[in-house]
Amino acid sequence: MTLRGVLFDLDGTLGDHDASVELALTAWLPTVGMVADPATIARWHEVAEKHLATWRRREIDFPEQRRRRLRDFGFSDDPEGLDAVFGGYLVEYESAYHAFGDVTGALAAVAARGLRVAVLTNGSAGQQRKKLARMGLADLGPVWTPDDLGMAKPDPGAFRGTVARWGLRPGEVLSVGDRHDLDVLAARAAGLRAVHLDRWGTGPLDEPHRITSLNELSDHL
Fold first, then answer.
1. What does pTM read for this prediction?
2. Which end of the chain is least crowded, N or C, by CB within 10 Å?
3. pLDDT tens for residues 35-92?
4. What domain range is 208 assigned to?
5. Helices 17-28 & 79-96 angle (0-180, nearest 10)
6. Where are the beta strands (DSSP E) in 121-189?
7. Same structural domain for residues 123 and 87?
8. 212 and 124 part of one domain
9. What does the pLDDT look like over 69-85, one tens digit per residue?
10. Beta partners for 117?
11. In 3D, which of 64, 114, 118 has the Cα closest to residue 86?
12. What secondary structure does DSSP assign to 38-74, as a single string?
């Protein structure tokens, strides 16, 4: 089946989420009386993943996963207060968000082959579209989130819903993302092709369709 579209993940694939978080925490944590040391930043990532996983299962809504993250850091249990505190972090995070350096070349390679581009991302619709706009990619193509689909990766239904809305068949779409569980295995379960973007060499190293930079994507198109 001929490839017709490339479906990109956003955070960790097109946008440097981890570096943006570190920059944001370095600026924000001192304003709430905390030290932005490596242990605290690592803890932030750990707590975020725990509660985002609960949200991906649709057990809580997006604002609640943010509140639970702050509760784990010892902030008060008042929802309005937690929302205000998280808002301070969010300003820093959104202003720090930036694209990886290999994105422009990869998108050019995709365009040169006449392939369509879309984004499937596990984030709130408004925030993720703002990130793309900040990176100069507001017109990249359709963007789908759990807000649009009613489900999140790694549910294969998120990929099937995306492809159906895109007007393509699963076998005509290549999923590209940094999470092997969310962007590769789940995509294949839905019938898509998939490439794992393993930027940091964490594996699995036996993945046959593995790249360490988007500069290598052209070999899989």
1. 0.94
2. N
3. 999 999 999 999 999 999 999 888 999 999 999 999 999 898 888 999 999 999 999 9
4. 5-16+98-220
5. 120
6. 143-144, 173-177
7. no
8. yes
9. 999 998 988 889 999 99
10. 6
11. 64
12. HHHHHHHHHHHHHHHHHHHTTSS-HHHHHHHHHHHTT
